[in-house]
């Protein structure tokens, strides 16, 4: 497959639409920039997922999708086929007959075109009765007649288009929905109070209606303060209990004093001496900003199934006859005999059989130390095999009763309170300055005119309210998130933009992160493997079936159709299999020592191994087979690594692959040899991350064995959107066939910081001027309430202009230029 750039001549057989898309430099399916590198053989598509979905849409005559699509959207991921074991459990638990009603979560829906596409596929199914899709919440309700069609077929078809359906999760947080209700109440109160105030402004000054409108305004302002202001009052009190001057403190104080001052003015001077309209508008505007902040993160979480990928966990189960089969962890039941290879996760609690072993209980206890287990001991669910040997356990529970489900769910929402020191300092200074200015204003006027002193204090608190920041900052975050989402980058943790500012080291896994993650045998070595027969073939099949290394997986897929019988004593011989990181597999049997691994380890350093074949299969050092694999790096890997280095970042390559392969990859990518480390176990990789981390590391990986490293780094990212555990533990996940998302995410965080800092500078200048006018007594609370939204609108408008799609380019060719 040829890697090309945009200035190449297009193939003559390309349709006109292909040529137009290539000339625009846009993906024909998702509309995102093609970037510097793309695969010409597939057409003008940014990744394999988009190419496949585009052709599928045309094959199924669903081209109206492109008429409904609102511009650029996220690239289409290539999802691994799923077994839908969760659906079997739902059907088994179902007592009723007739139509089936299901509430499901959906992953990958971005716009009305996605909704139309799924609905159209559903309509074509005879068994489909009704479907309702909520793309905002990532929810689907459907009614299906199981007697007229298999629901799995429909789910599998939807999966081909880059979407994934899963069981509805319980207990999902919907904090923004509560805020939305509070915001709706506050806005409705503000609109009604504004209408009453207009009557005062236009001359209503006495009479029953005058006082009736006044009392209604007081009542609605009270409702607004309780329903909307309570959000900020709660935050202010929580901050004060911790000894922190939170930005909610001046907001809350301004709300309370404005309410108290308006109520006093109403009771002593009449409705026209109150400013309930300004108070309610103020509360409504602040809630809009707070809701926007919460809504951003929930929308990103809803774009990924909240199950954290438990459906994608697989485990090797022994079947009658002694062979192993790879099955979804969700179908495991009590009594099943499971084989746990080195580095594998035990999905259910099990009793250890035959030989002692060691396991890491990092997920369960938080301690990374390895724990020894003896035969007969129960190893808890969630333990990692930390030894060089695989081990066999007998499951004592089904997956539905496993503690691992809780461990998986907990990773999807956990995020620490994180703010860099500059934000802590600025927040404290800002709040302190506002409170000091308000106290100074009251002190200056208290002796002369106590009523005026209260008005000056309220005016300062209102006019200096961080409403501009409270609205402009969420808007800036939303616009940045929109740009990232269109580029296929989805933030899962709100702290990432803050963390990204501290990143100085980028730590990259190799296989699956920098490469396409698929090993393939060369034609010559595949033919050699086909000629391997008898006991050697049976032993090789036995060894590769018990390892999850990409080499073993590739060989096992070729051997799977073999008719070779299992080894004698297959239940116990697997216990002798040792997986030596960086070297390979070793199996001691009565007829000798069988090895599969790199040269030097497997052939004992003897001559005779064909050149260029790095993986050797041997018996007592005698070579029985030598294999060569191909593995393609992602097209933009070298270019993106160079850009990271050009920006002064330290780039490390951490891999479990052999050191010679890691060195070769480092040379190709331009990474310094001393920063390319191979042969690392998951624990060793995590230890290296902890050694390098100075609160400044970004770890990027795609395998379950990267999970400990994610916990050790400041922040983490993964392209493994359809894998277990990692998306929930990562700060963000990204789609597509490249790694440009790394540079884009860091660039977005820096641009966001510049905008927020500029907004802060504008706010300081405005507040200094406004506070001076208030101290002079020239600004009343009503005028302050007018100035405050005017300043907010100005800052918000400037923010929108600076972060508009036309000003901020989310392209891999210049991720730092913004």
Give a description of the structure:
This protein is of the alpha+beta class and about 800 residues long. It is built from 27 helices and 29 strands. It has six domains: about 5-70, no CATH class; about 85-165, 2-Layer Sandwich (Alpha-Beta Plaits); about 170-310 and about 410-415; about 310-410, Calcium-transporting ATPase, cytoplasmic transduction domain A (Distorted Sandwich), CATH 2.70.150.10; about 490-515 and about 635-735, 3-Layer(aba) Sandwich (Rossmann fold), CATH 3.40.50; about 520-630, Calcium-transporting ATPase, cytoplasmic domain N, CATH 3.40.1110.10. The strands form seven sheets. A seven-stranded mixed beta sheet has the order 16-29-28-27-17-25-26, with helices on both faces. Helix 25 links the parallel strand 28 and strand 29 (about 730-735).
Strand order of the largest sheet: 16-29-28-27-17-25-26
Largest sheet: 7 strands, mixed
Residue stretches low in confidence (pLDDT < 50, at least 5 long) are 1-8, 304-309, 410-417, 810-818
How many domains, as an integer? 6
Shape: elongated
Mean pLDDT: 78
Q: Give the terminus-to-terminus CA distance.
A: 32 Å
- The percentage helix is 40-55%
Core attributes:
single chain; 6 domains; seven-stranded mixed sheet; alpha+beta; Alpha-Beta Plaits; disordered C terminus; 818 residues; 29 strands; six-stranded antiparallel sheet
Give a quick rundown of the structure.
The protein is built from 27 helices and 29 strands. It has 818 residues and is an alpha+beta fold.
